[in-house]
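Section 5.1 Outputs to date
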Amino acid sequence: MTPAIRQYLVITGNYWAFTLTDGALRMLVVLHFHQLGYSPLEIALLFIFYEFFGVVTNLVGGYLGARIGLNRTMNLGLFLQVLALGMLAVPAAMLTVPWVMAAQALSGIAKDLNKMSAKSGIKLLVPDEQQGKLYKWVAILTGSKNTLKGVGFFLGGVLLMAAGFKGAVIIMGAGLLLVWLASLFLLKQELGKSKAKPKFTDILSKSRAINVLSAARLFLFGARDVWFVVALPVYLHTVFGWDFWKVGGFMATWIIGYGFIQTIAPRITGSMEGKQPAVLWAAALALIPAAIAIGLMAGWSPQVVVIGGLLLFGVLFAINSSLHSYLIVSYARGDGVSLDVGFYYMSNAAGRLLGTILSGWIYQTYGLEACLWISASLVAMAATLASGLPEKRAEQTGQI
């Protein structure tokens, strides 16, 4: 086993462990606070700091990764998640909205430090001329992470029923603490540390390709979360009458399938030459939420329309996400890679923040159909922006 593969496995293992707790915690919070009588908008507000600090963390985290090394930012992310879980293991009387929002803020910082470090680290393990291998490694990392996030959704529902909210976060915190201790010894020192000390002003990308791709990513993830984060779990519970076990299990299955599609995206999309794949796959995705909304408005069976449409949405969204994840790693500079990746995932976090707020507000005020129409509009915007990406041959010659 080569040193590069060993480090890839350590990075992926860290990412997997973190993602399990991240997915489980999200499902725990949504279901537990819905059970306590919180409205969809109030539940969405619990995640605002999680998403907002993700925006800040990706900007500052990319700078930190280039200054102190990705090994340190990844381990810091793991440790902060342990602290966030510990904050939620307090007596029920202390679980006020401000306290939960603060814990979610810490978890948001942890999540994006870990994610930025993992995605940036892959760039440094694959030679620039091996773009096919880079696409496959990024796809495997991204897809397997989302598969594990789906398992985390299921785990969250199971732990909530088996151990209660407090017991669940204690179990997860103890497990992640062991992963953090192992990572301190296994992760390569000085990974991703820039040779030239970057200035703080370097956190803003000067690359047109990265700026365009980042804007497209913002709308893409806003389109997903506008109906997936709060609206869909609450809809499944209140309209379909599903219990928490079934909601968590279904959401988990969706994410697992979504992650699997991401891992095989290179086989589906084929050649990555030019910008056309990113434009065409986004345009196809925009049709799905619009079709679901039309079906619901026409009075068709909600179970068939929502579940069937969600499966199609998952396939196409997974391909779009995997394409974007590869492109950012490919476009990013070699020295100080975390600066470019951090800026890009700042836009990703901003899209999630936008989608999360809209998900609770629009669903509570106008219903699921409105969330779906907004989703379709946001994906269409992502496709339009992707048309402004440079051709691959121009990127390879540095004209970005």
